[in-house]
Amino acid sequence: MQDAGSILSELNDRSREVFRRVVEGYLESGDPVGSRTLTRSMTEKVSAATVRNVMQDLEYMGLLGSPHVSAGRIPTQMGLRLFVDGLLEVAPVTDEDREALDATRGTNEHDVTGLLDRVGAALSSITRGASVVLAPKREAAIRHIEFVSLSSDRALVVLVFADGNVENRVFTPPPGQTPSSLREAANFLSAIAQGHTLSELRGRMRSEIARRRQEIDLLARDLVESGFATWENEGEPHERLIVRGQSNLLSPPAAADELDRIRSLFDDLERKRDIAEFLELTEEGAGVRIFIGSENKLFSLTGSSLVVSPYMNAERRVIGAVGVIGPTRLNYGRIVPIVDYTAQLVGRLLNERG
């Protein structure tokens, strides 16, 4: 797909002005903009027929659409994207909006949750949209873990921390996982999670995996050295011990017991590898904490826009984000700098709190 700069370079001055005025008119009123309306505001004096021809060209390019026959035009999603990326003029944050956001500081220096609640409320009030606050990911002791399957390629992990805070993160589970395997992983992790952080749990799972792998190596060594079995993809996540037919020559009880034990250890190893991968994906997953706003936690709203900006810690590492969800006809020129200022404010306040 072409970027905004290359598409705009294909437009002459008249086409660019028609496009800009259609988008601005739509964002202001929410209604389609007609050619007669544009002729009264164009820089150069042109006829309505000329403007209609330009609008038809812009529609052919996919930048404008016509909701009804012989009606005016509105920007398409592609057109809005082009406008925001290439033509948007942002206004400075007003003193009134700045004061409303600065007032979220509060008095409790350690009440991070309260701060984020106040920021969300202020942002929603100022923008008249649904505010979204993605809280910093926590590295605190965990009390309980639960996985919820949302779709075939989407899952939610619910982390209940020892201090009572709850955090939800969305992630993409490894291929082939089922709701039952997610439940099994959650039950196992909840049983060993008490007092441990996510990083500590990952370390514990790595130790468990190494221990199981060592047990398998000890049991399988004699079989491999005797030529009765061979490794396939040794050391890889999908390794297998292939037992040859001549293993039937082993004394039946000993062979059966040893192979059953190896199978059991392999099953356990595979489960722990899956759980370790869940933990890794959980740590990487997007922290989703909605204080005020839409019921749709995945932000997949049709006909809606999300303006979001990350905030950083003192080391300039992204630790969360703030944003506003609203209709596609948001006042982007006003909303964008407000969200940007809010993100900088949150990062600064959180750094002050350590």
- Overall pLDDT metric: 75
Oligomer: single chain
**Measured distance between first and last alpha carbons:** 43 Å
> Helix tally?
11
Sequence of strands across the biggest β-sheet: 4-5-6-9
Reading the helices and strands in chain order gives HHHHEEHHHEEEEHHEEHEEEH
Radius of gyration: 29 Å
> Helix/strand/pairing class, anyone?
alpha+beta
Give the overall shape, derived from the CA principal axes.
Answer: elongated
Poorly predicted sequence stretches spanning 5 or more consecutive residues: 245-254, 287-301
Largest sheet: 4 strands, antiparallel
Helix content: 40-55%
Count of separate structural domains? 3
Percentage of β-strand residues:
15-25%
Number of strands: 11
Can you describe this structure?
The chain has 3 domains: 83 residues, Arc Repressor Mutant, subunit A (Orthogonal Bundle); 105 residues, 2-Layer Sandwich (Beta-Lactamase); 115 residues, no CATH class. It has 11 helices and 11 strands. The two termini are 43 Å apart. Strand 1 and strand 2 form a beta hairpin. Strands 4-5-6-9 form a 4-stranded antiparallel β-sheet. A 3-stranded antiparallel β-sheet has the order 3-11-10, covered by helices on one side. A two-stranded antiparallel sheet has the order 1-2. It is of the alpha+beta class.
